[in-house]
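Question (not urgent): is this output format expected?
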Amino acid sequence: MTTTVTADGEALSDNPVTGTLHTVTKEYFDLTRLIERLHRRLLDVVRNELINNGINQVNAVQAMLLANIGEEEIVIRDLTSRGYYLGSNVSYNIKKLVDLGFLTQTRAPHDKRSFTICLTDKGKQVSELIGTLQGQLAERFVGEIVDVDEVKAGTKLLRRLERSYTDYIDFGDL
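Got this back:
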C-alpha cells in the first residue's frame, strides 16, 4: 500500500477505506473549525455595523442577543437553552442590557424565581438594525454568491450535525 501526498500536503492512501476515512476526517475537522470562524466573522460584521451606526453601548454578542429576542417576551432560561451565545455569559449580558435600558426584566407570573425579558424601544432599534443587516447579507449571499438550493443543502447538513451532537449529549454512545 502506498501513500500519495497532494499539492496541498494532504496524505491520501491507496487503501479505499483508510484513504476515504482520512479525507472525511480532515473535512469534518475543517468544517467544525469553519463553523467557529464563521461565528466570529459574523460578530465582526455586527461590530462594524454597530460602529458605523454610532452604537457603542453594546457589543456584537449583546446586539445579537437583542436581535434574537426580537418582539418576544421570553423567559431568560428559554433564551439560554436556544444555545446561541457561544463563549458569552448570558446572565451578565442581560443584566448589562437591562442596566443600559435595552431590555426590561420582570418576574414571570407562573414562577417567581424566573424573569421574563423584552426589548425596550432602544433595544428594538438595535434589533431592527441587526435584522436589516442580516437581510442585506442574506440577499447579497444568495443573490450573488450561491443559489437557494445550496443554502438549503448547507442548512440541512448543519442541522444534521447539530442533531448528531444533541444525540451524543442526550444518549452518550454514538
